[in-house]
Design a protein that fits this description.
Blueprint: E1 34-36, E2 54-56, H1 67-80, E3 85-90, H2 93-105, E4 108-113, H3 119-126, E5 132-135
Parallel strand pairs: 3-4, 4-5
Antiparallel strand pairs: 1-2
Helix pairs in contact: 1-2, 2-3
């Protein structure tokens, strides 16, 4: 790969408003592989056989979801604004990402979730020790 073909990293993209480098949170989000020919036209008959099929492996983000991309920016923005708290209502994946990025940023995460959240998602949230975790049927 030549210098002109440098692979773009997550923070190489232009964000609006921009985040100063010292506030950019990085858990290796966004740099997931783009794979070709993982799926075939036989698996997805609606796609013509001569079409190339690409699969972006967002499940390989640090918290297993594409939500890592957005939450990296959003929590970095809060840090840049010197905010102390972040509040989110989530069914799981966004809460997991929020808890992870808030922990890294030193921001207190207040997370509202449904009492029906799967245990595997709940354990991923709690491992980041959010400031406050509220299970409520009214969380949405």
């Amino acid at each position: 790969m030549t210098k002109s073909e440098k692979k773009l990293e997550y923070w190489d993209y232009s964000f609006k408003p921009p985040i100063d480098k010292k506030y950019q949170l990085d858990l290796s989000q966004g740099n997931t592989p783009l794979l070709q020919d993982i799926l075939t036209s036989q698996q997805i008959p609606e796609i013509p056989s001569d079409e190339k099929i690409f699969l972006k492996r967002e499940d390989l983000n640090p918290n297993g979801s594409f939500k890592d991309r957005a939450l990296a920016y959003q929590v970095s923005y809060l840090k840049q604004q010197n905010q102390k708290y972040c509040v989110i209502s989530s069914s799981g994946n966004a809460a997991i990402s929020t808890a992870a990025f808030c922990k890294k940023a030193g921001i207190k995460a207040i997370i509202l979730i449904s009492p029906n959240i799967p245990n595997n998602k709940l354990s991923q949230i709690t491992k980041h020790n959010p400031f406050l975790l509220i299970k409520s049927a009214r969380a949405s």
